[in-house]
Amino acid sequence: MNTKFAASVLSALLYAQGLLGFAGLATVLLRDRAHASEFIAGSERPSGPSLLVVR
Question: Distance (Å, rounded) from C-alpha 19 to C-alpha 15?
């Protein structure tokens, strides 16, 4: 009985570690993607005068 309990606890811990690893990887990839899109958007801005007129 103790071996089955230990095996289920170990399995749950490994499953949780896998989920945390996947979440960490997704966070890093999404953060890098967001920074890359900000860099691209910043480089696409026109360098001339703005058409926006404030009165």
Answer: 6
